[in-house]
Amino acid sequence: MRPALAACLLLLAGCGPSAKEAYELEVLKLVAMQQESQELLKKIYAKADSGSG
Domain coordinates of the chain in residue numbers? Predict the structure, then answer.
């Protein structure tokens, strides 16, 4: 994830508002992906704790 973020920062440094919007969209995507994976982990752990897995 970090190389992509660094690339976005470089783009942001050299470009105008459209690059900033693209960067913000990428950040939102990364945050959403993180939240989804955390929810998935919670479900996996819940199944393991209940003994059904």
Answer: 2-50
